[in-house]
Design a protein that fits this description.
The chain is built from 9 helices and 3 strands; from the N terminus they run αααβββαααααα. It is mainly alpha-helical.
């Protein structure tokens, strides 16, 4: 007799939010405070993992170069530029953190995840979102702007480019442009 083993469910893959950057802006518009805006900006406009965003301190930012020095998975360090759009969303949290303990965000992991999902629903996004979907939105936007997967890999801090490829979604517009010759 054969022993039946239930299949292991596949690991969930991050998907960019269908509304892209505009969806992130809608979430920021629905946020209640500076920490929520910073959380969205760090994950969606800077491409940090949730844990990296929750660990973000004022000292990570070089105000002259507008780059964050992030210590990510495997204790690897990377520098990530902060765009004017990202800075606009998180500058208030930075200012507050300078007079406090230095941390931008004071949510615990589960609370931060729930906050992002709730803000996505309040923003009227097309589907429920998870925290990693913001990172995938960032990756897709950068790839669509540059066409450079290697650049996206560096920004996300992935050791392997095949991991990066999972993060970038293909938009309908890109499909149309790809065959419009």
């Amino acid at each position: 007799m054969l022993d039946y083993k239930a299949p292991t469910p596949s690991k969930g893959q991050p998907h960019p939010i269908p509304e892209g950057i505009e969806g992130l802006e809608l979430m920021i518009d629905r946020s209640r405070n500076a920490e929520q805006r910073a959380l969205i900006a760090l994950c969606g406009f800077v491409g940090l993992r949730l844990g990296e965003a929750l660990s973000c301190k004022v000292s990570w930012l070089n105000p002259h170069t507008m780059q964050l020095t992030v210590r990510g998975k495997g204790d690897k360090e990377r520098r990530v530029p902060v765009s004017p759009r990202a800075w606009a969303a998180m500058s208030e949290a930075f200012t507050s953190a300078m007079t406090g303990d230095g941390y931008l965000i004071h949510y615990q992991d589960r609370g931060a995840r729930k906050t992002l999902t709730t803000l996505g629903a309040k923003a009227g996004l097309m589907r429920p979102i998870a925290s990693h979907d913001l990172r995938a939105t960032f990756a897709t936007e950068v790839f669509n702007r540059t066409g450079n997967m290697r650049l996206v890999q560096e920004l996300l801090g992935h050791a392997n480019i095949t991991t990066t490829e999972v993060y970038t979604g293909v938009t309908q517009g890109a499909l149309v442009d790809g065959v419009d010759f």
